[in-house]
Amino acid sequence: MTDSETTTDGTPTIDSVTLEIVRNACEAITEEMNANLIRTGYSPNIKERRDCSCALFDADGEMISQAENMPVHLGAMPFSVAAAIERYPPETLEPGDAILLNDPFRGGAHLPDLTLVTPVFVKERVVAYAANRAHHADIGGSRAGSVAADSTEIYQEGLRIPPIKLYEGGEPNDTAMEMIRANVRTPDERRGDLRAQEAANETGRQRFEALTEKYGITLLTAALEEIKDYSERRMRAEIESLPDGIYSFEDVLDDDGRGATDLPVATTVTIDDDSIMVDFDGTAEQTAGPVNAVFAVTASATYYAVRCVTDPDIPPNHGCYRPIDISAPAGTIVNPEPPAAVVGGNLETSQRITDVVLGALADAATERVLAGCQGTMNNVTFGGTDPRDDSPYAFYETQGGGFGGRAGIDGMDGVHVHMSNTMNTPVEVLETVYPLRVMRYELRNNSGGAGEFRGGLGLRRDIGVRKHSAAFSLLADRHRHEPYGLAGGSEGGSGVAYLFENGLDEGTSTSNSDRERLPGKVVRELTPGSVVSIRTPGAGGYGEPEERDPEAIARDIKLGKVSTEAARKRYGFSDATFDDIDLDAP
Questions:
Q1: Which domain holds residue 193?
Q2: Does the residue 415 lie in any domain?
Q3: Within a domain: 242
Q4: Residue 534: in which H helix or E strand, if any?
């Protein structure tokens, strides 16, 4: 295939085989970018938890392909690329430039997520952009880890970076790097992770340039347009298969950490032929606390939910989003005005947006929608001075929980859900890198909602502070309102957190008098030997509990996922139910 083969209007003709090769090549580029970012990342948050994402964009800033990693990053990253292009139009760029930003009100999501955008040139013309986003374990601000549950304005949440050139003509901008390092608690770690981001984009640039050499830029540009159009056609066909109608759903956030409680997130989804309109009218006004989600985050969660209910195998690119319109009233927690605190909007409100869009779509396609997942990322930060070498440290992680039951299958136990798609911090890594100790790590029995298909279980993770004082922050939700069940299923168990200031007296338990229940959003100064116990929510069940297979109930009892007493109460069985089932069988 060459550029000389064209249609009557001058557009190159492209056969389906070439289109599929180009599409898969672009996806392979982003996956290699992501692998390079993880491999060269400096912090455990990137190397181990993989809290990062990569994508390719065309010359107009429209997404071509993405590595399937963090949904909350990927749907929002196009807004960052658009902000970078607005600040630095193609004619102002040169080979070797790379643009850094994190400002939530200029294309970002929250301040710990740093996005790097690198232009790709062919014959002195920008033909594409390689971009990635990585969650940095600290970007300054009032609290170590930069995920402060008590922030009330963005200025408290860390260093706010508008689009700037971190690299110019292939050379690092030492002034910018020096400014960033001077404002964070772990400057060497930040420099290392930023270098990894640059290396990932360099991989994308080289690979995309090789594609242009193979196919020619004219044919490649036409192929990319056709790939986006293909995704749009498939998305519209999927939407058209859903029943037209107006579907509404509402859920709440527990609180904003600053006194406001039961904050509604409401949506009305209108399906009209081959398009969808998602309207968040009725959602709570923006709050003093840090649960405000900027529009990019709201859009990202909405796009994700619609893709889940249609066909997740549709190639993810700009074409997928064309049939989806979003209305998010300004001044609400789904589209706040600056200088709102927003760190938790990306983390917690994004999950509730997903919950309500899926809840609304359940009326249109119940069998395609799962029950409520844990609905939180359980953000945990510790920070202080490492007594082993007197260096500052900042530890951040999110914790998994229950995945909702769905038609035909139980929910998964102890996994990150929806907008979070990270891994955990391995115990060995956590205890080696940080002056912390994992005292207990297990599934929470009885936390999954009952149903024909049970909801997944939450986790318990107890983390102790070694011989030093530490700043601790928890930013979590679903401590007061449980994840919803679906199609008659029961709600999942809510989350809870405890502080043991004197540590755990034994490896398995301690008396209630020795523990303090913590709010879901809290900041505390911990004394040496303190242990924080985070117990994450389970998920909702799917289908009527009385329809559950007795053998599945027996299996749950045998595996310790539900106690006999709880199973009897939830499923209403008698002892005779198990007469023909050997509970001692392997």
A1: 16-233
A2: yes
A3: no
A4: strand 531-535
